[in-house]
Amino acid sequence: MGNTRGMGTLLLFCGKMGAGKSTQAKVIASEQNAVLLSEDEWLSTLYPQQISSFDNYLKYSALLRPLIKSHVQNILSTGTNVVMDFPANTKKQRKWFLNLASEIGANHQLIYLKVSDELCLKQIGKRRTEQPDRAAFDTEAVFTHVTKFFEEPSQSEGLNIKVITSV
Questions:
Q1: Is 107 a residue whose pLDDT tops 70?
Q2: What are the BP-aspect GO terms (predicted)?
Q3: What digits encode the pLDDT tens for the residues 26-85?
C-alpha cells in the first residue's frame, strides 16, 4: 500500500464504540506486516489508573498527539505502513490524521466500520466480560454518550475511505 515516493501508508479507523476497530486494526496490521499503534495501550501505559471518565480520556488522548505525530511520521518516512488503532470518529480527529499524512506526502486510508448500534452494544457486552478491567467504561450509558459525538465520514473531507458494512 505504500506510494511511489517510498512512504508508508497511514491506515486509520472510524466506527462507533464497539464496532470492531481494534480487532480490524490487528488483522490489517498482521496482513500487511505493518506497525500497529494502539491508543489504549499508550494511554494505559503512560497514564495508568487516570482515565476514569470520558473527560479524562479526552484530556490524556490530546497529550499523546504531539509525540504520536512525529513518531508516526518517522515510521511512514521509512516506507513502513502504520495502522493506528486510534479513533477517527469526528471531523476534527480525521483532519488531524489527514494532516499528519499530508505533511510528509504519505498515503492514507480510512476504514469505516459501519455497524449497527445493536451489534456495537452486543460486542461491548462481550468485551466487558472478556476484559473486566474495562467494565466500568464499556457500558451502554458510555456508548450512548460517546455516540453523540460520532460524525460519519464523507468524501468531502479529502479522505480515501473504505466502508465495511455490517448489521
A1: yes
A2: cell division
A3: 999 999 999 999 998 998 889 888 877 778 888 998 899 988 999 999 999 999 999 999
| Across 19-31, average pLDDT | 95
| Cell numbers 488522548: residue | 61
* Domains in the chain: boundaries: 9-165
Amino acid at 25: A
Whole-number Å distance between alpha carbons of 67 and 28: 23
CATH 3.40.50.300 fits 9-165, yes or no: yes
User: What is the reported pLDDT for 5?
Assistant: 59
**Cα dihedral value 157, 65, 12, 36, nearest 10:** 170
Task: Please give the Cα distance from 76 to 10 (Å, whole number).
Answer: 7
